[in-house]
Amino acid sequence: MALDLLGRIGNFLGGRRPWHELPRLLSMPQLVQIRNELRAKNLHDTEEPPLERKEIPADLKPELREERTVDGSYNDLHHPAMGSCGRRFGRNFPLEHVFPDTANLLNPNPRVVSRELMTRHQFQPATFLNLLAASWIQFMVHDWFVHKRSSVDDGIDIPLAPGDDWSDPKMKVPRSVPDPAPAGSTRPPAYANPNSHWWDGSQIYGSDNDTAARLRTHTGGHLRLEPTKLLPVDPLSGLHLSGFTDNWWIGLAMLHTLFTLEHNHICDLLAREHPDWNDNQLHAKGKLINAALMAKIHSVEWTPAILPHPVVGIAMNTNWSGLTGGDLQEVFEFLDDSEILGGIVGSKADHHTAPYSLTEEFVSVYRMHPLIPDDLVFCSASTGQVLEKRELPEVAGRNTPGVAQRISMLDLFYSFGVSHPGAITLHNYPRHLQNLRRDDGEHLDLAAVDILRDRERGVPRYNQFRRLLRKDPVKSFDELTDNAEWRTELKRVYGDDLDRVDLMTGLFAEPLPKGFGFSETAFRVFVLMASRRLKSDRFFTDDYGVPLYTEFGLDYIKKNSMLSLLNRHFPELAPALKDVKNAFHPWRTVGPA
């Protein structure tokens, strides 16, 4: 009731002004109201048949109650399969609006959209961020979702226009493989997620028993690391050994290494607190604490860094600990009944209007490839001297382990901390990703694939996407972008038809509110799903307490941050991190000015 009342007050006082232009006192309740309306109208289940509620067995194994399972099952004890590996992506829009536009799958040609609107002619940096912010979101995405793909031979042919400089005679893209539908189904295709939908650190720990076992030392709860404190190299793939290594590059290897180090550190501290615990107990508890720490960093550090609007910072901190702050919440336990006062973490779990899953629209708004630079400079953390200059393919795929062996993790983190990612905008897509050759030989234009995937999976185009979020559609290309040159290009590519503009194109073209690193339209899905990933998860809600986490664990999560992790594992970074308030902000340079 309190949240609804605040929202109505915000709407009444705000009038027609968007929430992000209102004074802070008014914008916060209006944002709460937007989230509540999205919870009520923009969560739709795709499972056929729906998951059935089950009674919790009296003899349920204690570890299923107390630990995050490898595949994400038993998070909801009444619906053990909910959110687990292999469950379908949900939708943020009613199912009648998400059928694939098969008649216009290649209209306009995705390759033309890529070349004419996405190509990076000159790197446009996001100067308020460092390059770790780009690595971080890919690190998070790899915990959340992936789609099954067909073979290339069974793929989709993207025609090449006259004058196209593509080096192959044709461009063929694997299809997304739908989850099998029951006989007689009239629903649009739905797609299963081989990863767990939960925020459970699966990119570090693995999503199947065989992978999870390979990653462990089976001593002291630890994950495997070499004596050099680097991840082992898998002799079969030539990549580092970790839970999920698709699209591997040095930015991912750094974060996987950091959180593997952190897991082992947590286990060592737990072993001191609980000398009677065995390897499995230490590993499970370390995983629980480490996963929560990742979620906290994303919520209260990465998000306010890429969306440096003052209200977003308040909102994300409120999601985690409430307006009252953690200390008062511990004293006044009744505040847990109100998210806005006590925070989502530690509140009562609620799936709202649909069983929990990540959504296809959530996948789409996290297409943020412009963050990645094409050229990287690696410098010494002690002197600032340039060590190497490399192009993206030289630090990706099977080249990644060699980079980590040549350049220390200390110098790698410093180099990312003083470099900028790209701005999320048109004409800033990495040129190397538009001409990507994978280790397995597959050759593709990832920008064209991104456009194709939304059409193939039934994600509405930009204006319809806005309508379904109850935002006004843009009424002219002048409204779509404030860049006159882009307007001309957009009209040409889309035949002067606003309703044909693809979602990703519109999100990249849309003028950004002050203090936003990506579009406000994408933010609508973000604000819904960022809360949902916490609110549905019993390990962040009903079971976020001493019995599962221990007093040590809760205190550890509360006191730690990305900055504390970096300082702990790489103390030599202290000069670069001096006076830095957020680890994803640009760091101080060292060496001669």
Description:
The structure is a single chain. By secondary structure, this protein is mainly α. The protein has a domain at 42-51 and 75-159 and 192-291 and 350-482 and 568-577: Myeloperoxidase, subunit C. The chain is 41% helix and 4% strand. It contains 24 helices and 6 strands. It has helices spanning 2-14, 24-41, 62-66, 110-118, 132-144, 202-205, 209-214, 250-273, 279-306, 310-321, 326-331, 339-342, 360-365, 400-406, 409-417, 446-456, 462-468, 477-480, 484-493, 503-509, 520-535, 546-559, 562-569, 574-577; strands spanning 156-158, 171-173, 375-379, 386-391, 436-437, 443-444. The strands form 3 sheets. The chain has a two-stranded antiparallel sheet. It has a two-stranded antiparallel ribbon with strand order 3-4. A hairpin with a 6-residue loop joins strand 3 and strand 4. Helix 8 packs across helix 9 (279-306) and helix 9 (279-306) packs antiparallel against helix 10. The radius of gyration is 23 Å and the shape is globular. 47% of the residues are buried.
Which features does this protein show?
single chain, 593 residues, mainly alpha, Myeloperoxidase, subunit C, two-stranded antiparallel sheet, 24 helices, globular
Task: State the gist of this model.
This protein is mainly alpha-helical and 593 residues long.
**CATH fold-level topology of the domain at 42-51 and 75-159 and 192-291 and 350-482 and 568-577:** Myeloperoxidase, subunit C
Silhouette: globular
Order of helices and strands: HHHHHEEHHHHHHHHEEHHEEHHHHHHHHH
Widest β-sheet, arrangement of strands: 1-2
The CATH top-level class label of the domain at 42-51 and 75-159 and 192-291 and 350-482 and 568-577: Mainly Alpha
Strand content: under 5%
Structural class: mainly alpha
Any idea what the CATH superfamily of the domain at 42-51 and 75-159 and 192-291 and 350-482 and 568-577 is called? Haem peroxidase domain superfamily, animal type
Work out the radius of gyration. Answer: 23 Å
